Amino acid sequence: MRWLWLAYMTPGRPGRVTTATELRWIYTAWLGAFLLKMLGSSWDVSWHFMWLRDDLAPPHLLNSAGTVLVVALVVFHSYSGYGVDRRALRLMQWGIGAFLVAVPLDIINHRINGLDITSWSPSHALLYLGTAIMLAGAIRGWWLYAAPGRVRDLVSLGLWLFFLENVLFPNQHQEYGVLSLSAYEAGRTTAEPQLLDFAASQGQSPAMFMLPVPSWVHPAWLVCAGLLSLVIARKVVGLRWTATILAATYLAYRAVMWLGLVAIGFPPSVLPVVLIVGAVLIDVAVTRRVPGWAAGMVITAAVYAAAVAQQALGVLPPWNWWSALPVAVGLALLWAVVDTLARSRWLARSQTADEPSADVVAVRD
Fold first, then answer.
1. Among 72, 169, 213, 243, which residue's beta carbon has the most beta carbons within 10 A?
2. What sections of the protein cross the membrane (predicted)?
């Protein structure tokens, strides 16, 4: 550690010359940090459907370990200038700043409003936003400075996987809630009595407690936020099956976590399997250069059709089928905006990294 500190913690500007080996170590640390955060967050959702909230609960501690590593990485980039340009560094700094502001706000929110189990609260939204911004900085830094090839593609897919998981994270409330409510109504609740008693003391019915948002929220967010993230990832990474790989990996991760959490006694969730339908069609549409305004309408219709089958099996949160048209229009418009930006001069300029600074690189032992 002393050697690493003396060798690399030297002041420099963004764009500082970084070797391929150094770059791989730096961004492997980013992957490790977000893996800790993702594992902690996944456990946290299941935890909240069983136990009362606790600031020092194991899932929070695991997530916090990842956050500490992210803070250390942002400090490292800010001080040394390795592995980032100015735009990537600013995204990292603004992202971690928003996240750290959201943490005390969330704690205060829980102190004032009690349980606040919903994933859709304003303080939670700020946590997701901060995470998305810092991930955007990491994605940019790696993509600009890593040499083209298999390693760059794999690390990029890893970072985009964490981005997708962060975007879809709020929907897990309904995906846990639908099974928890069903178990409660069947007389075999998965929640501890103290949790249900606390919810009742706040005037919440089991349905309000477990499915607190309207039925159009889950499909609208999955399509207009989740599928849109896959569209952008497909265009940035450029691999033919980028969206399919990300969606399949995300669902596989959720399935493994499902097995692990249920094995140790935590509540289960349903999986948004319909995501893979949209992902495959996104890859086909981008490969065949289908305009976003048309692809968005068709893909939304296909996802809603697949959802009918999944909901018939009782493994999908309630969907408001009347939301299909406005959601389809929403994805079509958002995809059209992405297509317009992809052809813009602004994007072409932003894809160029800042020139490496003229800092003198210290001689290392």
1. 243
2. 21-40, 60-79, 91-112, 124-144, 151-169, 216-233, 245-264, 270-286, 293-313, 319-338
Nearest alpha carbon to residue 119 among 64, 57, 48? 48
| Domain assignment of residue 180, given as a range | 1-213
Q: Rounded CA gap, 299 and 282, in Å?
A: 7
Pair 219, 186 in one domain? no
Rounded-to-integer distance, Cα 350 and Cα 352, Å: 5
Determine which helix (DSSP H) or strand (DSSP E) holds 164, and give its type and residue range.
Answer: helix 150-168
Instruction: Please give the span between the terminal C-alpha atoms of the chain, in angstroms, as a whole number.
Output: 14
CA dihedral 193, 260, 27, 144 (to 10 degrees): -90
- Residue 361, Ramachandran bin (φ over 0: left; ψ between -120 and 50: alpha; else beta): beta
Q: Tell me: do 27 and 163 sit in the same domain.
A: yes
Q: Which amino acid is at 62?
A: L
pTM score: 0.91
Both 134 and 10 in a single domain?
yes
Query: Mean pLDDT for each consecutive 10-residue tract of the chain (365 residues)?
Result: 75 89 94 95 84 70 92 94 93 94 80 66 89 96 93 96 96 89 76 68 68 91 98 95 98 95 89 97 96 96 95 88 96 96 82 58 36
